[in-house]
Design brief:
With 700 residues, the protein is mostly beta strands. It is built from three helices and 55 strands.
Length: 700
């Protein structure tokens, strides 16, 4: 008798067109009268089987709750078919491996689920099997409402109990496309998988942690793993096995090393292997690259808080066509959500926080678009309290859109620019709030040769001079620079230097939990007031996704800066040019510096009291936001009294903008009378005013 683990009944069925009892008979005939070691056939299609670890018996029929089977070995020895259900009794506990055989059909999957009341039925691999739950060369399966663990007992040496372990593992090697997998409402926890890194320095090897293991041997342990292989690495087939149409949802995955969820394709990188190139990607058009297709990971809670070896929350590689949405990723290691060798992936509406370095990993980012990734869209995420907020690490090549995210309080870089020169990134309409480091957007060396277009972002820091890296290929446009003094990049001709008028900052709200899901609404505290200088100050961007972080349509009026678009357009704004009567300029109207609006700007005399004045009209009495566009090519702030209708209401400071052709915005909230009002900027020092371009007045 061939051992169960080597049975071939799970391969593509030779007699798929025959009824199951006829297929079984055919197998017996081919065996010349001897029943070979294949799984026993199930009953007619759409049959429900019951399994009870406490009061079942494998001699029972298993066809009703009064006559349940007992053991995993009974289930594993059976070939199931389309529409069948395998129901494990709630509260039951089984030790070993669950590997039922057979495949479902499109629209009629085989379902593993629970029955009765109580705790989810538990499959405990106990570190005695590689996979606590396994499917191999099978398709159309739904796994629902299980608790799964695979913990090898600890030894006296930390890490020595880590091994090639997974909770739920779906794979194959039959050169087919395997379709239709749903993992739903499972609780996978405490999987003591080994940590194998692709590269690195072997001097860092420790028990359970190994560097330079290559692509195929690395990062394929953890809670839920989808990957493929070949029957013989020295003589691989010409066609890969591809996994298609996969959903992982509504689940809790905790303390599972290496990753919470990992997806990989075989490539032939191990010693003695003949390379296939299926799982690695030399270029965006690499014809050898054969990714898995159509994966969705949504509404899960993933944490590695309880293990020093738990790294990525989601390691998403070798996929074309993927969506990762509405997950909470809490206190993982290395990267909360990472894509690698992937195409056409959207990462949206996730909350990622608390990522740190673990198990020899070099990174600690919330979200990472990494090597060889194209068509990556990262949007509507709340990323906070990690080491780095979002890492763009597109080595070799890649393209990514980073938009309408709220990125706050990360302890190193809010955005880390680390891509090779062939990569491209659009970074627009994000709200960055830095109160934990000296960096907002950071890159260095050759990684600043990549092209990054940075537009319409709120860049706010409570720490002065937080780094905003620049180069000839990094372009800043119409960003708002707020908080402490920031080094406004010289090329940002539409820069707004102002208080963005957050609703409530910093954010003081709880993070997401398994019960609540992602706390996306916590980021609403970084919405801006209706009269904010961020309103109507952005530039229009085509293909912007059609909505903001909160779901408001784009655009209402002119584009806003930051992750939130004012739903009513932010009130009514009227512009008053400094060179247009009845404005008064105590100096000259000049046009010798580029970037101004209208036909010129006010170049005031270098003297105290050499003012610029505007006459504005208000339909009703009330508050208004005034926004002054200015340039100060010196390194010294220029101060002025803001005088409204003859009364000084406050003193404003116009900081250096880096050049006279670089313009910023200074805002203030004032009260206006109904009808005509005068607004004067009266310099208080002999240096005089900054150059004044215009005054915008916004009323609710």
């Amino acid at each position: 008798m061939v051992p169960h683990s080597n049975r071939r009944s799970c391969a593509a069925p030779r007699f798929a067109s025959l009824p199951r009892f006829m297929a079984w008979a055919a197998v017996a005939i081919l065996a010349a009268g001897t029943v070979v070691g294949v799984a026993a056939p199930a009953q007619a299609v759409n049959t429900t089987y019951y399994v009870d670890s406490a009061s079942g018996a494998d001699s029972n029929t298993g066809l009703d709750q009064s006559h349940p089977w007992k053991s995993l070995s009974k289930v594993n020895a059976t070939t199931f078919g389309a529409g069948d259900r395998i129901l494990l009794k709630a509260g039951g506990v089984w030790t070993g491996q669950l590997w039922p055989k057979g495949s479902g059909a499109a629209g009629s999957p085989i379902v593993i689920d629970s029955y009765g009341s109580g705790a989810k039925p538990r499959i405990n691999g106990a570190g005695t099997v590689a996979d606590a739950v396994r499917l191999f060369n099978q398709q159309y399966w739904t796994i629902r409402n299980l608790e799964v663990t695979n913990t090898a007992p600890p030894t006296g040496t930390p890490g020595a109990n880590l091994g090639d372990f997974r909770g739920i593992h779906v794979g194959g090697n039959n050169s087919q496309t395997l379709d239709g997998f749903v993992i739903d409402a499972v609780n996978v926890h405490d999987v003591t998988g080994q940590v194998n890194w692709i590269g690195g320095d072997t001097a860092g090897n420790k028990p359970g942690i190994t560097f330079r293991t290559g692509w195929d041997a690395s990062k394929k342990t953890g809670g839920i793993v989808f990957d493929t292989t070949v029957p013989n690495i020295a003589a691989p087939p010409s066609t890969p096995t591809i996994l298609n149409d996969v959903v992982i949802q509504n689940s809790r995955i905790s303390n599972t090393s290496f990753a919470g969820i990992s997806v990989k394709q075989y490539t032939g990188s191990s010693p003695g292997a003949v390379g296939t190139g299926w799982g690695t990607r030399a270029s965006a058009t690499d014809t050898k690259f054969k990714p898995h297709t159509n994966f969705t990971i949504r509404d899960n809670y993933i944490t590695q808080a309880g293990t020093a070896y738990g790294c990525n929350g989601i390691y998403f590689t070798d996929v074309r066509g993927g969506t990762i949405e509405r997950n909470v990723v809490d206190k993982t290691g290395t990267s909360g959500i990472e894509t690698y060798f992937a195409d056409d992936v959207t990462i949206q509406s996730n909350e990622v926080f608390g990522t740190s370095k673990k198990a020899g990993g070099a990174d600690s980012n919330g979200i990472d678009a990494d090597k060889g990734t194209t068509g990556q869209v990262v949007q509507y995420n709340y990323v906070h309290g990690n080491g780095d907020g979002i890492l763009l690490c597109q080595f070799s090549f890649g393209d990514v859109v980073l938009r309408y995210n709220v990125i706050t309080s990360n302890t190193r870089y809010q955005i880390y620019l680390h891509s090779d020169a062939a990569a491209r990134a659009q970074i627009y309409n994000n709200t960055l709030y830095n109160d934990a480091s000296n960096y907002l957007i950071y890159g260095y060396g050759k990684y600043l040769d990549s092209r990054y277009a940075i537009s319409n972002n709120i860049l706010y820091s409570t720490r002065a001079n937080a780094t905003l890296s620049t180069s000839s290929t990094v372009t800043y446009r119409n960003n708002l620079y707020g908080g402490a003094t920031l080094p406004v990049p010289g090329g940002d001709s539409g820069a707004v230097v102002a208080n963005p008028q957050f609703v409530s900052a910093p954010i003081d709200a709880p993070s997401g939990t398994p019960d609540t899901g992602p706390a996306l609404a916590a980021a609403y505290e970084l919405k801006v007031a209706a009269g904010s200088p961020a309103v109507n100050r952005g530039v229009s961007i085509a293909g912007n996704g059609g909505r903001d972080y909160e779901g408001n349509a784009l655009y209402t009026g002119a584009p806003d800066i930051g992750a939130f678009e004012q739903p009513n357009g932010g009130g009514s704004t009227t512009r008053y040019e400094a060179e247009t009567s009845p404005a008064v300029c105590t100096g000259t109207i000049d046009a010798n510096w580029s970037g101004y609006s209208g036909s010129g700007f006010c170049n005031g005399d270098n003297a105290a009291g050499a003012y610029a004045q505007f006459t504005v009209n208000a339909s009703t009495a009330g508050t208004a936001t005034v926004s002054v566009r200015f340039a100060n090519g010196t390194t010294t702030d220029r101060h002025a009294d803001l005088v409204v209708n003859g009364s000084t209401v406050q003193t404003v400071s116009f900081p250096g903008t880096g050049a006279w052709s670089t313009w910023g915005i200074k805002t203030a909230t004032i009260s206006l009378a109904a009808g005509s009002n005068t607004i004067r900027l009266n310099p208080t020092t002999t240096g005089g005013l900054a150059n004044i371009d215009y005054l915008d007045v916004t009323t609710p």
